[in-house]
Amino acid sequence: MNESYQALRMEAAWLDVSGRGKIRIAGDDRGRLLHAMTTNHIQRLIPGTGCYTYFLNAAGRILADANVFTRPNHFLLDVEPELAGKLYAHLDKFIIADDVTLENVSAQLGSIALEGPNAVKAMRALGAPVRDAAFGNEQWGSRLVARANITGLDGFRIFVPAEESSELAAQLGNVGVPAADEDVFRTVRLETGKPIYGEDITERFLAQETNQVHALHLQKGCYLGQEIVERVRSRGLIRRVLMPLHMGSKELPAPGTKFQIDGKSVAQIMSAAYSPAFGQVVALAYVHIEHATPGTVLQLGTTTATVAQPFAISVDSLAPVGVVQ
User: Fold this and answer.
1) N or C: which end of the chain has fewer CB within 10 A?
2) Collapsing DSSP states into helix, strand and coil, what is residue 44?
3) Is the pLDDT of residue 221 over 90?
């Protein structure tokens, strides 16, 4: 078993995620604008808190997702690398007479993900502040520490001036936290059933189909795409939902592979990885709603896949301080 994989699952490990997009939103109208563009309740956030949210188009499809961190004078959006330019342009299009300033700070800010069951212990060894609530964030000198994760395990995101990234990496080594690579982080997130935009979530899908309930605030006011979200909620219109699968195989299925029940295709694979801990492939798939019950067995030739409990150990569903769910 890879040592960094074992460290991430059992203790803690870190990954340089400086390639992720970072957008700073400032100005007196920043809360009003972001509230009107997202699926979560931005206007009730207070400095030091945050949330996970979607940006939708008018048809209710997911344009992007983001971690939102609230600071005293701005919001910081943390997004997948390919979404920074797209999201910047999307927001800029809706700024008319608003006092809102957008800045793409992706190149200026490095970021490191520190995750694992002992992430809190590792952060304290660094002398870094630790917030209890999901998406809680606090300044640490020139750095910003936020409670967020990639893997679904407990974790933190440390945003640092780009020129200080190597210094932070050295500090992590000094307190005994090893580095892991992207494949290790990806394997663990699939073990926990946590999706990411670009692989498991795309513009094809409606918000409720992704099974990420913590991205939605169903009682908030008007926002772009809300009509579709409310229609789905009130009428139960979705026909598929994102679920984790555990496969009785070590062979990876290609994205788009379809599993069946009684000869009918009922699930489509989005991403998969071999799990050393489980001794089998773990995957995320959109499963027809009538077959999305944990324990349901799907078939592909002689290979079986069992629908697992969704996102069983993710900490992202914790209610952020300042948000009424």
Assistant:
1) N
2) helix
3) no
